[in-house]
Amino acid sequence: MKKNANNTEMSIKERIRELFDEKIVTPYYVAKNTKISEPTLCRILNGKTIKPGSATIDELAKYFNVNPTWILTGKGPKIQHAISEPPAAVYDKKHPLPPLSEEEKNRVIKLIEKLIEKSERNNRTLENLAEIEAQNSKNLAKLINQLTQDNT
């Protein structure tokens, strides 16, 4: 199956296989560290289970720190970001802020916009670094495999 930049043409199985290959883990190891059984993981990786259940997808997403939507569809960012609550949800309602003037509100808005832009740039940088790390892991696995074959 042909891959594109967003991995939307890859199957769920191929995206999950990619996660296993990037982290260089086995179904046994992932099963030991998640609530997913080894046979379930093997059925997914062997293509016998075409569409894993939502609990399995969520558990894999949590283990590999990736976006569950990416696993299912290949769309959206691959890496799951730590910030999941909007700033309003973090706001301490017991200690409200004093009223702000219009000028202060505008300054705060501009600062927040700058922080959002910087955060988005940082997220893109982290995604790029994760892709580089994944490629390095693949290369290292290939090298280990070659060295192992050369020694036999």
Structural account:
This protein has 152 residues and is mainly α. The protein folds into two domains: 10-80, 434 Repressor (Amino-terminal Domain) (Orthogonal Bundle); 98-151. The protein has seven helices and no strands. The protein has helices spanning 12-23, 27-32, 38-45, 54-64, 68-73, 87-90, 102-151.
Essential attributes:
152 residues; 434 Repressor (Amino-terminal Domain); 7 helices; 0% strand; elongated
Topology order in helix (H) and strand (E) letters = HHHHHHH
- What characterizes the major β-sheet? none
Number of domains: 2
* CATH fold field value of the largest domain: 434 Repressor (Amino-terminal Domain)
Name of the level-1 CATH class of the largest domain: Mainly Alpha
Structural class: mainly alpha
Q: Report the helical percentage.
A: 55-70%
Rg, please?
Answer: 21 Å
Quick recap:
The chain has 152 residues and is mainly α. 64% of the residues lie in helices and 0% in strands. The chain has seven helices and no strands.
Topology of helices and strands:
Blueprint: H1 12-23, H2 27-32, H3 38-45, H4 54-64, H5 68-73, H6 87-90, H7 102-151
